[in-house]
Amino acid sequence: MYKLLIADDEALEREGLELMIRHLIPDKFEFLHAGNGRKAIQLAEEHRPDMIFMDIKMPGIHGLEAVRQIREKLPAAQIVMITAHDYFAYAKEGLLLGVRDYLLKPARREEVAEVLRKLMAVIGEERRRRNEQLELQEKLAHLLPLAENELTLMLMLEHVQDLEPEQLAGLLELHFSKGYAMVLSFPRHGESGWETFRQSKREIYEAVKQFAKTGLGCLAGPLAGHQLALFIPLPPGRTGYSQRVSSLDWGERLRTYTRERFSLPLGVGIGSIREGWDGLSRSYREAVRVCADHQHSFGVHHYDDMIQSSGQTAVSLDEEKKLLTALLQRSKQEAAQRFSLLYDSFEQGGDHPLSAVRGEVTGLLLFLARGVHSTAGAELLASLNAAEDPRALRLSAESWLERLIDGLEEEQEHHRSHVHQRALLYISQKYKEDISMEQTAEYVNLSPHYFSKLFRQHEGETFIDYVTRLRMNEAKRLISEDQLNLKEICYEVGYKDPNYFSRVFKKAAGMTPSEFRQQQEKPGPC
Questions:
Q1: How many Å apart are CA 291 and CA 295, to the nearest integer?
Q2: CA angle in degrees (0–180, nearest 5) for 495-497-500
Q3: How far apart are alpha carbons 329 and 322 in whole angstroms?
Q4: CA–CA distance from 168 to each of 34, 148, 155, 165, 499 (Å)?
Q5: 3-class SS letters over 357-409
Q6: Nearest to 184 by CA among 174, 172, 197
Q7: What angle do CA 351, 370, 281 make, to 5 degrees?
Q8: Which of 28, 65, 316, 490 has its CA 20 to 30 A from that of 247?
């Protein structure tokens, strides 16, 4: 159904137009009547018609002014001007106001029917587009929480790839250049209020997450055990010190909110402000470590304060990246040395609890695993969590470092083998043509020098020797079949000069092609 407002100061005109339309297109319209411009504006605002037939000349507010005011409130309404005055000035002003069409009194049936069909087509298309837009918005509303979970998990597990976080952040309309992580730690098993939390954790999670997102404009991760991670952007123009004060204040607000609404204590760990996605992952690890160091103290603790009070020096991201570089270069000795130095800094002479050291080394190894594209994150976590004392944790961590290096070497060897097999397949298809080592190296995306070394390592002979051997074996087979003459065989196996072919054949077989054929033709002993 369509709502059609007919505005004309002559009742007979309005009623006649309605009867005509009911006859032309029955059961499609709900009609509204206005005898002047003011009434037309009121009805339009109240009933929001799809179409309006507006007379230009009416008492009081004339038609064009009524159209102007209606268009401000209902820009999608399809308006047709009806007038007995065929003046260009009216038409020009109406077009500027967005009038769809004109009808001259007395309007003919065919003209009215044509105008209505056009308007119905326009409205139908707009409704279709609007439905598609709403369906897309509905799908997006379901996808956005998944995108947020995916991005936060990537940051928490340090599985950040180059393009993926930017794509997810774009979908979420987020712009992170600097930021920090905040970890909310609810009481564990055995602590006061844990049973309440376990039974109502979904309600608690949603309420606390919404409270934090409303105030901080942050990313909120999924509830991981008893912890909720928040990733908070640094507002433009905010200094690091003022943001640190603000983050501590927000930590207290979250504690107060959780205590007053759910009667639950809450521990808050805050990481330092860092740049980029790697920096946010690092800040998350810092926040987790703060929570581990203060797991029995439900207060607000900042990583920077912890470092300053303990006299520690925070491990720089540069040191971690140097370790990753050594790992990627398969430099076992350098990687082991750098890893040992970082591990010593985590332990700080054995003054820190096992849980804090475990958090640091787990974060470091996840960072390395992501850097070498390892998929062993879940196994790594389980292995480190199973370590019950400092020595077992260190041995497990060192073992994982070796596994990451060994995995790189295995991957490299597998890649080399795969490349070599592709090269052999290419040669088997092309050796009868004018094939070269450079062409083959280009085919497998290697430099000629590296390809030459790789080929000799796998085959025990040079590229030229290998191709020559294939050609000579094929030449012997064709000579034995005795279907082609020697010149034809020369061309068939990839040579253009019969004399050169003969020399190469003699060098490989110890006799000329003619002698080889004669030998094949001799009858065997009776």
A1: 5
A2: 90
A3: 11
A4: 52, 8, 12, 5, 66
A5: HHHHHHHHHHHHHHHCCCCCHHHHHHHHHHCCCHHHHHHHHHHHHHHHHHHHH
A6: 197
A7: 55
A8: 316
For residue 464, CA distances in Å to 33, 116, 445, 474, 510 come to 94, 80, 19, 15, 19
Listed in order, strand segments (DSSP E) in 47-99 are 51-55, 78-83
Which residues, at least 6 apart from 394, have a Cβ–Cβ distance to it below 8 Å? 343
* Average pLDDT estimate for 68-78: 89
Rounded to the nearest 10 degrees, the angle between the axes of helix 377-386 and helix 390-430 is 160
Write out pLDDT tens, residues 79-103. Answer: 988 877 655 456 556 666 778 788 8
In the chain, what are the helix, strand and coil shares in percent, each to the nearest 5?
Answer: 65, 10, 25
Place of tokens 């990583």: 303
- For residue 50, the model assigns a pLDDT of 92
Higher pLDDT, 155 or 166: 155
CA distances 4 to 7, 43, 128, 344, 479, Å, are 10, 11, 20, 80, 92
Whether 131 and 140 have beta carbons less than 8 Å apart is answered as: no
CA distance 86 to 463: 89
Conformational region of residue 188, where left means phi above 0, alpha means psi within -120 to 50, and beta covers everything else: beta
| pLDDT tens-digit series, residues 304-339 | 777 665 555 555 566 777 887 887 777 788 888 888
Q: What is the rounded CA–CA span in Å between residue 59 and residue 65?
A: 12
Helix (H) or strand (E) holding 227, with range, is: strand 227-233
Element (H, E) at 164: helix 164-171
pTM for this prediction: 0.46
Q: What is the DSSP letter of 48?
A: -
Alpha-carbon separation of residue 480 from 21, 22, 277 (angstroms): 94, 94, 68
- Cα 292–Cα 293–Cα 296 angle in degrees, nearest 5: 80
Q: Which two tokens stand for residue 39?
A: 């009434």
Per residue in 447-484, pLDDT (tens digit) is 888 788 878 878 888 999 999 999 999 999 898 888 88
Helix (H, G, I), strand (E, B) or coil at 419: helix
Q: How confident is the model at residue 526 (pLDDT cuts 50, 70, 90)?
A: very low
* pLDDT above 60 for 286: yes
pLDDT score for 53: 93
| Count of C-beta atoms within a 10 Å radius of residue 478 | 18
Averaged pLDDT for residues 515-523: 78
